Structure formats: C-alpha cells, structure tokens
Amino acid sequence: MLDTPAKPASDTDGAPAPKVSFVSLGCPKALVDSERIITRLRAEGYELTREHKGSDLVIVNTCGFLDSAKAESLDAIGLALNENGKVIVTGCMGAEPERITTAHPGVLAITGPQQYESVLEAVHRAAPPKHNPFIDLVPPEGIKLTPRHYAYLKISEGCNNRCTFCIIPKLRGDLVSRPAADVMREAERLVQAGVKELLVISQDTSAYGLDTKYATSSWKNAAGETREVRAKFLDLSHALGELGVWVRMHYVYPYKHVDDVIPLMADRKILPYLDMPLQHANADVLRRMKRPASQEKTLDSIRRWREMCPDLTLRSTFIVGFPGETDAEFETLLEFLDEASLDRVGCFKYEAVNGAPANALDNPVPEEIKEERWHRFMQAQQKISARRLKRKVGTRQQVIIDEAGPTVARGRSMADAPEIDGNVYIASRRPLRVGEIVTVKIERSDEYDLHGSTAGF
Ligand code: SF4
Fold it and tell me: Which residue in 149, 169, 151, 170 sits closest to 159, CA to CA?
C-alpha cells in the first residue's frame, strides 16, 4: 500500500470525503501511472488512505510482466477483496481480464495500463465524488509516491521494439512520445516543489520522439522566456540539464546518437550515469531475443563513452537461461561482463511470460541450470562491482541524502539510482537532512556500497 499523504478531506456539507485505498505494484513506469491516478482522485476530493478496512474502495495497480509478478498482483487483489470487498483493478495485468475474473470474480472493474479515464469512471460509479472538490488540495506538481527529493519523469509510453520475451508492446502499444514542452513543464513544476533529482524513464529513452519526427514544441520556462524544444533525446537532455538538479537517464539503448549526450555528462549538465538494459551479449541469443544490438558495437560504444567521460557509471540488466542458451553462449556473456566491466548489473532468470513469442522457442533451459548460471553470473559481477567501487576510496563524491540518522545517514552518489543501486553510508558531525546534497570523503567500500564522512556541505 502507498505511503502517500493522507490529508483529511471533507465536503462543504461537512460529510467526510470518500476514501480510496491504493496498492501500487510493478516498475517505475507503473508507479508514474499510480501517481497520475492519485493526483486526479485528490483533485476530485477523494481521501487516500493506507488501510483497506474502512475505505470506500480499493484500487490495485497491477504488474503483468512476469508470472511471479502476476501471482503477486492476484494475491494483492485477493487481500483487498477479503479486507474491503470493493476492488478496481488497473495496470498491465488488466490486459488479461479473464485471468483476473477467473481467480477473483468479485472485482468491480478491470482496466488496462494508462486507462486513467476508465479507472476514474469506475471509481465514480463505486464511490461518487463530492460536489465541491477541493481542487486546491492537490499541489501543482501532483502527488508523488516517491520521496519528495526525487521523482520519476515519464517521457513516452509504449515501444517500437519487439523483444521476444516481452509483452509490453502488446500491452502498451507502439511508442508514443510526450511533447517536449509537456515534459519540461512537468519537470519544472517538480523542481519548484523541491525535487532535487529527476529520473527520466520510458520503455526506450533513446528512441524518444521518433514517432513524432522529433516535433518541436514551445515551452515558457520559469524565467518567463519562451523556448523551442525538440522531442529528441539530446535536446531534452540539454533542456533538463538547465534546471539545476540531478537528471538521471534510465532505459537508454546504445544507439549511435547516445554518443552526443555523453559530453553533457562529462560537463555534469546531466548525471554521468546510463542505465542500459542489454539482456545478453551472445549474438545468437540476441537474435532469438530480437534485440537490436551486437556485442562488438556495444563494447566499442562503452570504450568511446568512457574516453569521453571517464567517471561514467554504466548500469545494465541481463537474462540468463533464455530458451536454447547453451553453455558456450552463457560463457560469452561472462566474457562480455568481464570486458565491459559494468558498474552496476541486475540479472534475471528467464521466466516465460504468457503471450510472449519466446515461449514458442525450442530447448527451454532447466530450472537448475538457470539457477546455477544466475549464481555464477552474480558472483562474477560482484567481483567487478567491488573492484569498480574500490577505485572510489579516497575520492570525494557528491551524495544526496535519502535517510537521515542521528550519527549515520544513508545517501546515494551520482553513480547510484534509488532502489536499484548501492548506497553511501555517511558519518557526519551534524545531522543531515533528506534531500540535501553533501560532499563525502569515501573511506571504505564493499561489494555494493560505499562508506565515508562528510567533507563539505
Ligand atoms: S525494448 Fe524490448 S524489452 Fe523493452 S519494452 Fe520494448 S519490447 Fe519490451
């Protein structure tokens, strides 16, 4: 359930506002959808709560990416039905309504991802809004489910790629990019509300604007100047880089034009950080996955980028045990890992997703082999990660504080995205504030985290 401000709301007649309990599951993209729905609900005068019991209804924003995520979604729906009884389901799993109704015939309504209007209509039917909504209950930046000092900024929906293990294009359709001016307005509002770090997300960030032929739109910035900005990865990076906050790029595919953005990272206009899901390194596996990448080209890009920006942090995710993956193909992946020397890496054991073309591929990899490969992969990467972190001992790093403590605070350097990367543990003579950015002298490292003390404020 969400940790969202549950500010009491009431109608002008003094009657309490309808209460909605909200469960948000899944990836950061789903979190952005949840934020939009909650913003609308608050605008209409609904009260958000963390308790199913005593609420007028429950909304469950589901994840339908992997079977394990679907099982978690079905459990969350079941719990909400038991504790409340009135449940609306939305999100990725809404694309498979029959699976939900078979398990839970009692749900009130099911809608798919980004169907905000349908969710709102279902809420109105189940718990009508009050007549005089307190529009001003909603701060102009919307309701953020992430801590106030960082926020996700979604720049597009859908995807033009057709990776065989993925059903996101089926669920969310082809790429639809937001106009650059809309993105900039939202980013500026977030910054004005105190956000210090923007996390740019989409399914394929470097493809931003391809569908609109990189359309230009006008945006009036906070200084009142009207600016033209193109819906293109480079142009958006430039514009976001002028906002004076940390800007972190996620889900960037290693296309050639990414080269143009690296100088902005070297100049610290945006963070020197690229989250680049590669999924595999072996050419045959990549072909079976229908991934538009080649190992040699990716290694060349990484070399070039590191020459341009030596402290660039590279993060990636991989899948082991994809159908037909041989021992030799897996070994190529380990060799790539060693050569690429990525800073941060996530690894998933392949899981069949209902409706994904990869399910039809021959030679599924037995579970015990997947497990064994996963362990070997993680052990190999742990050594690389520890080696990369060790190089930071003795340096000074800018760190944003996520959690304040009386003597030790927890934060993240420019190399660490929230929730998926490591932490920096900081001893400080004065208590640090959440969202504050401080200079930290790094004294020690381990496999994933850094430790140090404040050296400047
Ligand atoms: S790039 Fe591939 S994995 Fe990512 S959303 Fe598009 S189809 Fe799915």
Answer: 169
